[in-house]
Amino acid sequence: MAKIDVDASLAPRLFAPRLTVLVTSLDKKGRANIITLSWAMPTSFDPPLAAISVGKRRYSHELIEGCREFVVNIPSQDILEKVQLCGSRSGRNVDKFAESGLTQLPSKKVKPPRIKECVAHLECKLVDSLSTGDHTIFIGEVVAASVDEEAFDGMEKCIKLETFKPILHLTGPYFTTSTSVRQIN
Ligand SMILES: Cc1cc2nc3c(=O)[nH]c(=O)nc-3n(C[C@H](O)[C@H](O)[C@H](O)COP(=O)(O)O)c2cc1C
After folding, report:
1. Domains and CATH numbers, the chain
2. Is the Cβ atom of 37 under 6 angstroms away from ligand 1?
């Protein structure tokens, strides 16, 4: 098959699809904000670390630097419209919990709340950050993790795709999901 050259600025569109997450953080008065991210990944087993890449102009960038804690919440397709809302409005101008109707659920070990409607939650304490061009990679130690019972296979210790449809971001307003599992022996 022939290869076509594309502009290097399109690199994120080739790194796709990506798991989409909702990250919560707190302002100085203790008000919670939500940002939609698809630049997020685990980055160490021991200690368990999670990395998120946040644009330097985002309100959440300021909040995470200030409160030094965040929660990575993993949504499913049934709240796609709310995920899009949290990724298109800024917490500087709007209370995204009120606007989206999403529900705050107290976290176990950090101050920012979990989002009740999400399926899994990684509570993180900021341990490092790295400036990468117009974004900052915030690295959090996962100090507590929780998941909806019906979405987790306790034997295999993995997400159950029969009950959980992750939101995978392609680019802009385009999303997909994963419907099948292949086992390689
Ligand atoms: C599907 C999707 C994925 C996104 N991924 C990222 C991301 O990885 N990093 C980022 O900084 N912004 C990302 N954004 C944009 C932010 O979510 C958006 O700018 C948001 O309004 C910022 O909110 P805040 O100003 O309240 O922090 C994404 C938006 C959408 C809809």
Report:
1. 15-176 (2.30.110.10)
2. yes
